[in-house]
Every structure is written in structure tokens, then in C-alpha cells.
Amino acid sequence: MKSGTIKANNFSHLTAIERESISFPAKILRERNLLLGDILDFGCGHGVDVESLKTNGFKITGYDPHYFPNYPKKLFDTILCFYVLNVLLPEEQKQVMMNVSTLLKPNGKAFFAVRRDIQYEGYRLHKIHKKETYQCQVKLPFKSIFKNENCEIYEYQHYTTLHQGNELISPFFKHNEERELITETVNVFSIYDKFPVNPGHALVIPKKVISNYFELTEAEQGECWTVVNKVQSILQQQYHSNGFNIGINVNEAAGQTVPHIHIHVIPRYTHDMEDPRGGVRNVIPSRGNYLKQLGIYE
């Protein structure tokens, strides 16, 4: 989460509480029989919930970039993410959301617990560690299943699972078909193209239904490109491509056929076409190879 240009809260891990018993959100979910199947505690801190639930017969794994850094290599039925988002900057929060969505099975559920007792947002000096740590309020557009003055618990499912077959949400859900989610943030999701031009051809789509990319706000556009970067990383690992084309069709004259903005992320492979030179310029085939037109090569 701290690689590249992501702005990070370097001391967020110092906020992990060294508890001796199971956390309050875990108790609530256990009482409601919501801890099902293979469980992942994402951002588990010192791992107290993991050990406590294991002792009680639950099949649970913990991941924390600082304390349990072995990143999971499979998908889970249930994912817990307790009080993690409150101590992360917005860029880091997006990374957590994408990672959780990617690790969740298509019909699985994730539960995000956030604090509701934060009085001051921003950096503060940690009382014990004497380091500048960050905290903020977090509100999510997911189903709230519990709330009191100290805590709120949200239930998350894949956007594609929640809205399968619902054309009112997006024309991409027009037919009652399963659309495999690649990853998502609060405002953007990604699926595989129904008619791929190459293996791994993906679409990055804002949840806001609008046809013209340039009518998105700068923040909305930025979140789209955050997801593009994540999708490219996922596709590279899965398909081992030799390159990528990234493109957006805006309006009918540019070839847009679905009135909901979508960014194409297309893996490219050596020899997938006779002459790839010109790349996206080949949207007008006779203009693609400008070097040949200039006589620089034949």
C-alpha cells in the first residue's frame, strides 16, 4: 500500500491495540452467525481476533502488512476489516478497498468496522509511541448492520453481485448474467469485457452512470485511474502480457456503443497482430503507422 505515488500514513500500525480478548465487532458478527466459511481478518494488527476465533473453531487467517505480512493467495467467504480505514489516508483507503474486493469470493461478504467516537480528525501525537499518527471519520455507501456511539459495521458485497441483472444501475448489467468483478473502490468497479479483443481485456467503470468521461469531476476521474493501475497490476500477474493499450471511447463518433463511461484496459501480446506499431492510432487504420507514411521504414 505504500509503493509508487500512494501517500501513506507511515505510523498507522502503531494504532493497533494490544487486546487480550476478542474485539467488539467480532463479537457482534459471531452472535449474528455472520462468520462463515473461510475467513480473512484483513489488517488484523496483533492477531488477537484471529487466535480467539481459531480457538472457537472458526477457519480464519490473518493478514497485516506490519505484523502478519504474508499476503493471502486465495479467495475468502468472509473478510473482516476492523478499524483499519480510520487510520489511513484516502489513497490508502482506496488500496484497502480494492484489495478486500479482490480477495472476496463472488458471493462472499466483507465487514468493515469504523470508529464513531473520533473527536479530532488529522494527525496527533500517539500517547505511547510518541509518533504522529493519523485518524479520520469514515462513512461508506454500504449496508449498515450495526451502529452505536463508538462503532459502525458495514456489510459489503461485490457491486456485480448486488446488482446482477439491474439495468437501472448500469447498462452493463442489462442481462441477468454473472459479471466477474476484478476489483472496486467506493466509486469505481472493474469487470472483464464481454467481447474481449485479447485475453484479460478489462473495463474500468465509474458507478456514476454518465456517458461522457469529460463530465466526471477531477476526483472521479482520478479514482478511475487508481483502479486502472490496480487492474493493470492484476492482469499482468494473471496473463503475463507484453504490453497494454488503455483507451476511452467518448461519443458515437469515437465508437462509443454503451452510454456508460468505461475505460478499456487491453493486455497486448507479442505477435497478437502482424504490425502493432502505431498502437491506439490504429483507431483510424490508415493513420496508424505514421512512420511508414513518412518513409522512415517499410
UniProtKB/TrEMBL annotation:
Pfam families: HIT, Methyltransf_23. It comes from the Bacteria. PROSITE patterns: HIT_1, HIT_2. Residues 168-275 form the HIT domain. A motif (Histidine triad motif) lies at residues 260-264. This is HIT domain-containing protein. It comes from Pontibacter aydingkolensis.
